[in-house]
Amino acid sequence: MEWDDVIYISLLGFSIFFGRVFSQLPCGSYRRWVGTCVGLAMVVTVSGYHSLHPLFSTAANLLIIKYADKAWCHIYSLVFCFGYLFLFRLGSYFGLPSPPGHTNAIQMMITLKLVGVCFEVHDSWQLDRDLKISEENLKATEADKTKTISGNNEDLPAKESDSGESTVRRRVTEAEEVPGKPCKSASEEHEELLLRKKYEAISPSVLDVFHYSFFYCGILTGPYYKYSVYRDLMEGRSGGPHLQPLWWCLQRLQPLPLYAALFFIVGHFFPLKFAEGPEIFSEYSLGYRVLYMTPVFFVFRMRLYAGFVLSECVCITAGLGAYPQRGLPRPGKGPTDLKALDSNSKEECTNEMYSYETVHNIDEYGSDFSPTVRAGMRCWNMTVQWWLATNVYRRMKAPKPVKEAVTMLTSAFWHGMHSGYYLSMLTVPFILMVEDYYARVVRRRLGQTGAAVYDWFTWFLKMQWFAYMGMAFLLLRVEPTLQYWSSIGYLGHGLILVLHAFAQFINLVLGKAQDKLKKARKTAYGSETRLSVKRVNEPQPQEDLKKIL
Q1: 291-317, pLDDT tens digit by residue?
Q2: Can you tell me the distance from the alpha carbon of 453 to that of 430, in angstroms, rounded to the nearest whole number?
Q3: Each residue of 481-507: pLDDT tens digit?
Q4: d(Cα 496, Cα 540) in Å, to the nearest integer?
Q5: Which among 121, 26, 9 has a CA at the least distance from the CA of 66?
Q6: Using the 8-state DSSP alphabet, how is residue 239 labeled?
Q7: pLDDT digits (tens, 9 = 90+) for 91-101
Q8: Angle, to 10 degrees, between the axis of helix 3-22 and the axis of helix 245-253?
Q9: How far is CA 402 from the centre of its chain?
Q10: Which residues pair with residue 181 across a beta bridge?
Q11: Where are the extended beta strands (E) located within 53-203?
């Protein structure tokens, strides 16, 4: 174990025990200052004078929040924070001393927090505008209802009903339900906006953002949480008198000894350094090098699983992110069913009725046993995944593959400047395209048994792809990464190309089969009949395709 890991574990252990004290503090200003002072002390302990970096980036964002237009503050913050992160990592090229590894982790989390709070400020500003529009629409709808009841719609002629009585036609509005599309009424939309205003809208002061940035929970390596989640903790909106953080912490710590033991045992027999040495290329076979990636990536997972569990427990003992289960909290976001949360807001919850899903950062089982790369990634570093999905992916108006590529590029840039991050993460969009195509063309045509076999096969491919990309993520530099990949014939990328080529072949064969089937049906039923049109538009049975092929 390296010295940085010892410091990291020691600070996490202290934070977990300190959470028992912090959770007993009264809500308000005193709790804020205690959490901030502890966080600043941890930053100075691991960073020394390099603590100026997170302080400077925080000060700049405070100016953005205070003086910038709310319509653009999130863009200014995004450009500045990621630009400063770039300069921060290239400081050694300009003769500046390189910051410690833990300072890099702190700067990464500070970046997510500062950009995230600016997005929340922008969304709150947009929410206020939407509320004004909603109020106007609600008034207009009420006015229409009044006119309809009183029969004053002069521009809408009356028609005779089935019973022979005269009725007034209703005016078609945007609130009416369109066939095939669920549509909310104006009052329902307004109610939803009011709930978002109550639980999600923020209007922080400069000092509030400073406290949020340096709060000790998640200051080292996460998890990420929104400002509104932090505010709920400080104002006593989350948690409750029956919440037992220690019980939840012990539940989450149960698998930790297993992760630690596997990390040390497997890491002893399969060290990463061996993958960088000349012996593995000169004295061992191609098959051994292919297999060696799997235990190396396994050790990496055990290390991160242990770290993620400990960082979650820091938040758990402090009571951060403890919401009733009825609110359906999600990692990073917090409650998602605001109506259910608000309808029973006065109901006292027992300890088991709470959930810490808001700060749940890793789903170990899902990461290891989900059948696809897409599903596995969603279980990994889930709070950061939510940040990327909310603030990058969903903000873009572009085709899905482009959005995925930009999101993965942003993730790689956030992780660091090493080429290994880009080599691994920019491989992901190509894998996702192949996975999505086979799921659409092959898996949905299979029965229950066939789908189960298909999932086991894709799970095996997923783990090999993860191990393949993990070598780039761990080796970091381009030379050792390409040396290792070339020694196994760029197996991961080659597999993508082979599967893509085979997918194009399947697409070609199915396309020709569809054309033959349409021609055969036109011949059988005639091109002018309604029956022929109906049957051509129906999904093609698998048996008919086999006969034509």
Answers
A1: 999 999 999 999 999 999 999 999 999
A2: 23
A3: 999 999 999 999 999 999 989 888 877
A4: 28
A5: 121
A6: S
A7: 777 777 888 88
A8: 150
A9: 17
A10: 178
A11: 158-160, 166-168
3 state SS of 49? helix
Q: Are 223 and 359 in contact (CB under 8 A)?
A: yes
**Cβ-contact 91, 97 below 8 angstroms:** yes
DSSP one-letter string for 371-418: SSHHHHHHTSSHHHHHHHIIIIITT--S-HHHHHHHHHHHHHHHH-S-
Q: Per-residue pLDDT tens for 500-509?
A: 898 888 777 7
Q: Which two tokens stand for residue 291?
A: 């297999």
With both helix axes pointing from N to C terminus, report the angle between 29-47 and 206-213 in degrees, rounded to the nearest 10: 50
Look at residue 149 in the predicted model and tell me its pLDDT: 60
CA nearest neighbour of 43 among 97, 108, 116, 94: 108
Question: What is the spatial distance between Cα 84 and Cα 411, in angstroms, rounded to a whole number?
Answer: 16
Q: Two tokens at 140?
A: 């207009």
Model pTM?
A: 0.85
Q: Using CA atoms, how far apart are residues 412 and 425, in angstroms rounded to an integer?
A: 6
Percent of the chain exceeding pLDDT 70 equals 84
Q: Which two tokens stand for residue 474?
A: 């761990």
Highest mean pLDDT out of 67-76, 145-154, 532-541:
67-76
Cβ atoms of residues 156 and 148 within 8 Å: no
Residue 175: CB partners within 8 Å, gap ≥ 6? 137, 141, 183, 184, 185, 186, 189
Of the listed ranges 159-173, 271-285, 423-437, the least confidently predicted one is: 159-173
